[in-house]
Amino acid sequence: MEKIGQNNSFYVEPEKEGAGFMSRYPETTKMTWSVRKFHKEELYVSKKMESNVYEAGDVVMVMVTKVANHTRIYTADNKFLRLYKGDIIVGTLGYRYASDAFHANSIDLSNLHLLTNSGLIGTVTSRHSETIEPTRLKLIGIVSDHKDFEPINLKSALFKPGKKGLTYPPVIFVIGTGMNSGKTTTTARIGHSLVENGLSVSLLKVTGSVAYRDLFEFESTGARYTADFSDYGFPSTYMCPQEELVGLYSRMLEDTLSSKPDVILVEIADGILQRETQLLLKSNLAKSTSVGVILTAPCACSALTLVGKVKELNYSPIAVSGIITNSPLFVEEFATYDSTPVLDTNGNRHQFVDLISRRLEIPVLV
Asked: CB neighbours of 268 closer than 8 A, spacing ≥ 6?
């Protein structure tokens, strides 16, 4: 029996050729929200072998060696638990693009960090100046299936691109200047207002890094269907090729069809200049499904840049919202240079409903 961390034990089974060792999880292991699609009793952990190749989406077991930026994790059973040095957690390898937090574009198995409190694990290469160092982790092993002991990769297990040639309901993208510009709040509030006015609505988040909060915000609106990229095995969409992003988008749209939505609101994470945002918006599928975009920005100058960028991509702005609406002066500055309406989702939801219903050519009582 090999002791790992406080009160945690692995019961080592006989070694299998080329497998190192296999053991069941200790009962005190904390399963993060990123691996919520799997059942604890069905999984094993095997020591890493030098010949193994690890990829984004691989499920791993790690030990917390230093608690820093992330002091809690959100678990697979929807608990928000404090982390302690020596804790054993299970999460997912991947990358993160977060201009206000961490940039992690590599996976160094000897230098792992907790990238989100939902269990995204990778290696931080830079961080925002106001973000403290990441919580540090030590790799214990790769998580494997209990039947064939093959390493589990979430993307391989859960993702299949959507079918081609389908007809989809109209889509409205919610696009921001960057992180924390108000995208998720705007998407949720507008979605709730549309539901209140009798429309069938689907809310999707197609890009980003796995985090429970955004999806829970969508679920609280009463929308008929909600989903995000992590439901399809993506720990994040950072560094994905365009073909994969478009395949994910088409699959998400396809899965909304059974709920027969009048409109689909799709949040795109990070900002208009981010690589994956550009790749998705430049795709034929995104252009052909969109009937307009709602934009979020923190100030007048950034909002003007954002409007210009989406117009360059041949998308039609419906309105500007987000953090900019906190400042009447920013709103006035923007209106001096552009006629796109700036609307606060707190006080002007009926105007959003009116503008969107016109795009959809659906009469709505507002």
From this structure: 173, 174, 175, 176, 183, 206, 207, 277, 280, 281
User: Is the Cα torsion angle 277, 282, 286, 290 positive or negative in sign?
Assistant: positive
Q: Choose among 226, 232, 258: nearest CA to 245.
A: 232
Give domain limits for the chain: 2-156, 171-360
pLDDT of 117 = 97
| 162-189 pLDDT per residue, tens | 998 999 999 999 999 999 999 999 999 9
Task: Cite the beta strand spans of 107-229 per DSSP E.
Answer: 112-114, 120-122, 126-127, 136-145, 171-176, 201-205, 225-228
- Rounded distance between C-alpha atoms, residue 366 and residue 358, angstroms: 12
Cα–Cα distances in angstroms (integers) from residue 68 to residues 31, 82, 118, 125, in the given order = 19, 12, 15, 16
CB 172 within 8 A of CB 263: yes
The DSSP symbol for 176 reads E
Strands 201-205 and 225-228: parallel
Pairing assessment for the beta strands 136-145 and 112-114 based on DSSP bridges: antiparallel
CATH number (2.40.110.10, 1.10.760.10, 3.40.50.300, 3.40.50.720) of 171-360 reads 3.40.50.300
User: Mutual orientation of helices 183-196 and 349-360 as an angle, nearest 10°?
Assistant: 70
Q: Is 20 helix (H, G, I), strand (E, B) or coil?
A: coil
Using alpha carbons, select from 193, 203, 199 the residue that is nearest to residue 172. 203
d(CA 229, CA 212): 11
What does pTM read for this prediction? 0.91
Nearest one of 168, 365, 218 to 357, comparing CA atoms? 365
